[in-house]
Batch of 3 targets.
Target 1
Amino acid sequence: MSSAHASPSALDVLLSRASTDHLSAPAPDKAQIARILSAGLRAPDHGKIRPWRYIVIKGKHRAEFAEQVIKAMISADPKVPEKKIAKRRQRFSEMPMTIALVMALDPESKIPLQEQELSVGAGVMNVLNALHMEGFGGFWVSSDFAGQPCFREALGLSDSQRLAGFLFVGTPDKPVHGSKRPDIEDYMGFYKGEPVKFGADQ
Ligand SMILES: Cc1cc2nc3c(=O)[nH]c(=O)nc-3n(C[C@H](O)[C@H](O)[C@H](O)COP(=O)(O)O)c2cc1C
């Protein structure tokens, strides 16, 4: 923590973020989640594509949503183990809130799709940080089954929309410390007229 500040600086808070899926109620209320997701819309956005869409799943709709997840998992792999189904059913119906992270891409744009996808990712990171700043926790998970037509239809995704995963959201059960982070010295270098070598790659 910077000695110039009695309370943690914004950077101190960013440096203390870590993921957790040990989450309980309460989830953010309607006004809180709207403000938190507004941080996602602060992501850099080349060409003003506005590729971010957030589908919030909460309350009684969690169980219905979990069933759509199971349907899609079975559609993707009819032999999916029962244990995996049970775990996903439990997580999607019991997490206080799930946010489906939709990438609304414009394939006709001169802005490369990779940049549009990166903008969605940058938005998700802002949302994770905003959750942390407001005392909530979040965990980004993959959506390997989300390409299934039944699931795309259930969510109302158009042909150019894809999922970047889901965020599980709620209040951390206990203080989150997260894993030890690597040393920044191994991940940064100064260009001095020669190719840069990183400690992380040695
Ligand atoms: C796009 C994306 C998808 C992820 N999917 C999963 C997942 O399906 N399951 C999982 O355990 N972690 C997944 N993770 C990793 C966790 O969200 C988290 O980052 C990881 O547990 C490390 O925690 P940290 O954020 O505190 O470093 C994913 C991360 C990203 C960026």
Target 2
Amino acid sequence: MRTAYRVETVRAAEAELMAKLPDGALMRRAAAGLAAACAGMLGGAYGARVVLLVGSGDNGGDALYAGARLARRGAGVSAVLLGSRAHEAGLAALRGAGGRVADDPVGAVERADLVVDGITGIGGRGGLRPDAAEVVRAARGSGAVLVAVDLPSGVDADTGEVAGEAVRADATVTFGAYKPGLLIDPAREHAGALRLVDIGLALPPVPDVEALQHEDVARLLPVPVGESDKYRRGVVGVVAGSARYPGAAVLAVSGALRGGAGAVRYVGPAGDAVLARHPETLVHAGPPAKAGRVQAWVIGPGLGDTPGADDVLESDVPVLVDADGLRNLDPSAVRSRPAPTVLTPHAGEAAALLGTAREDVESRRLEAVRELAGRYGATVLLKGSTTLVASADGPVRVNPTGTPWLATAGSGDVLSGLAGSLLAAGLAPRDAASAGAYLHGLAARRASRGAPVAAYDVAEALPAAWRDVRG
Ligand SMILES: NC(=O)C1=CN([C@@H]2O[C@H](COP(=O)(O)OP(=O)(O)OC[C@H]3O[C@@H](n4cnc5c(N)ncnc54)[C@H](O)[C@@H]3O)[C@@H](O)[C@H]2O)[C@@H](O)CC1
Ligand SMILES: Nc1ncnc2c1ncn2[C@@H]1O[C@H](COP(=O)(O)OP(=O)(O)O)[C@@H](O)[C@H]1O
Ligand SMILES: [K+]
């Protein structure tokens, strides 16, 4: 599991550790890790031209001490001082090692091999100020490798929000713990490759945000055993499709068939289309309550204007509500259910549920997903460039897989079928949602390999994604 902690928690752990260590020891640890990472990216420090962008806080201090180390190894290091003051001991260390303060900041970054962004870290507020923004733009245009210290300056560490201009780094070297913003867009896009330097912090067991890795998903996935039969493996019911959108039913069933349930019941008017593609589906044209027993329902993809989720929400099994099922969804109807509910909105659907604008959800997705989970008393999977899964309590899960090629019509239908199938197979709601998103993103990467994919390609790549995860 990759874990991330909010600034408040990181600062408390730092304070506890600092009290036990000599003055400046923690910063020297951080700087040593940073210098080693920079030297690695340069393929050796000797003869390299390194420019440090230095803000007025300890983030600048890290950059200055790391610069001193690189200078001692033969790099030409200069510092661009962007704050009202600079970390005094760090600046003295740099000067003592032969580094200097740049008198022409833009010229210096234009000639640099590597630029170190030490403008702001976890103490930063808002976007870059104009003087910093100008030098950062020159650095971006120079072809130098841009390495952010702890965080790309200008992004919000706790939320991933980017209000104004921010550094776009090739890599970020972060200290002690990942911060949520490093894993969540839009900030994640600014961070580049992530590297964590252990500085010995003792962090609480429960993080604020976490991201599943292969081994976590492998442990969650259902695997049939000798005495399994199709009913014991779980039956998932899919209520989807309409005369206008029969394809959504086919796609949701395609995901459900590859999600680990032993059987898929399809309920709705698109039975012929579903059977043509998936003859193994149990098809029913009447109301869901008459379709036979299921262990979980998926409702919503391609329903169009046909009545919403009420019938299914009254059932006593887990329900996943997607797409058209989310329209006008009543929080009290969801809250009062005896079984768990999973909602899978994209940003537009989440915005409609919250009564806000789509852009607002996209820029503050962590807050939006938490708010929806609280309001509905449900597990919420918010889709998009960073897919998040939140339940009423516990860490928010960030999905680390996926590709922007997934932004294609119908891929969400595959996901809802898949996650619903995992629910029917017995996974807890946040596990079904997050393992589903993980496999879905992995399948999309496999199917795409840098080229456009259709939603059905993603469904077909799901078995290969399972095999990847299970090793
Ligand atoms: N506390 C510790 O023990 C350690 C801290 N470390 C470093 O210290 C950093 C935190 O240091 P600080 O708390 O001094 O805070 P930062 O250095 O992150 O930033 C605060 C400073 O930046 C200024 N500032 C805030 N927003 C700005 C903006 N938008 N544009 C320009 N300037 C802005 C503030 O006026 C303040 O002087 C961490 O991110 C990490 O890099 C590391 O050395 C590891 C140890
Ligand atoms: N920019 C993006 N980067 C990565 N994944 C994305 C991006 N945009 C959308 N996705 C993913 O694509 C899928 C689209 O689902 P959805 O919006 O419901 O579309 P549809 O209703 O057409 O199926 C989701 O899994 C979502 O997370
Ligand atoms: K920084």
Target 3
Amino acid sequence: MLIANATLPDGRERDVRIADGQIDAVEPSLSGEPDIDAAGKRLFPGALDVHVHFRQPGYSHKETWETGSKSAAAGGVTTVVDQPNTDPATVDGAGFDEKADLAAASYVDYGINGGVTADWDPEELFDRPLFALGEVFLADSTGDMGIDADLFADAVARCATSNRNAKRSDDAAARAAEHDVTITVHAEDADLFDSSVEGVDAGGAGRDADADLWSAFRAAEAEEAAVERAVEVGTGQGTAVHIAHTSTPEGIDAASAGGATCEVTPHHLFLSREDADELGTYGRMNPPLRSEERREAVFERVRDGTVDMIATDHAPHTREEKDVGLWDAPSGVPGVETMLPLLLEEARQGTLSYERVRDLIAANPADVFDLPNKGRIEEGRDADLVLFDPEDAREIRGEDLHSKCEWTPFEGRQGVFPELTLVRGEVVYRDGEFGDAVGRNVRER
Ligand SMILES: NC(=O)N[C@@H](CC(=O)O)C(=O)O
Ligand SMILES: [Zn+2]
Ligand SMILES: [Zn+2]
């Protein structure tokens, strides 16, 4: 396949040739009849979203690998990493294998994380093509997988001594170049939640309350404290720590100072407590929405490169499940299809550069999680590509999206959506139509 005259994220205009699923050449001019004339369009590396909840096995009424991965493909996401709070939870070999069978239905490439609970089996997990450990819950969230300090320390230590890559490769050089298992952490310290918040103990009262009370309850201070603890334990053992969904400037700075990597979600980047009233229970998620002041400080850290990547924490729940009182509603919002469109709209407006967006959604996650075939438009890498018209913004509407939940916290905002998404050279999405479910586990090559 030949894509001609595409503008790359850095502004260079190039022809791109694809062969055997990989990028074969990137040149100012390549011979041959183009399959796609991309004049005036931008070509991006496909986005990696290292934090999704596709809900299978166990909760297929919320999402499935098919619907979640179609939503990803239509939003320009070509690799997703699924989190372990399914049923069964992905905490042992049988749980991993069950999820791996279901994930074969994916339209995009994927990683499968293993979780930590009192009865997890690290040896069985490390024996399998695991993406990373995580998200490890330092406080309860959807799935009630919160763990105590001792178990967390134990999990970190096992990552350091997993020897997973030594087992998986005979080549000493390849072994040395690979990282050991990274631990991804949901960092909130429940001891610092504010139980004086009205309605917390009322067991289902506060039906008319909006998500601002949730933000008051799961206080901002709880993040920084948990990040500090995670980073301290991680550095002590020499284990790479990645902090999931950092939502405060304090949390981001603590991760960065401690040598951990971190991600920010689109909802913490674009929404704040000022939106809580309008969102109602649909604005309840963990960690919760923060003040407008903190949101702006988070945005600044995304712009200046302190934040490593954007990841969605795509956490769909049905409308029926959300349409109850604040204290009964499940936490979480969908986001995999709107992440890149929202960021490309920022680039269109000039508030983030195209190069920064590329780093946040592709180059950095590929580097941090050791995926040398992903994340860049470079000869020899996988042809995971997204083509879009940079001026073609449209209104985001839940009913147009492909997640099973059919709603979005970004209703009515502008987004620049892809026209074409390729996974290893295969068309998985084009102008509203889907190709084949070609997704593969990125740790199985
Ligand atoms: N973020 C959320 O509020 N919910 C997530 C779990 C999580 O990421 O903590 C979910 O699985 O629903
Ligand atoms: Zn979480
Ligand atoms: Zn999550």
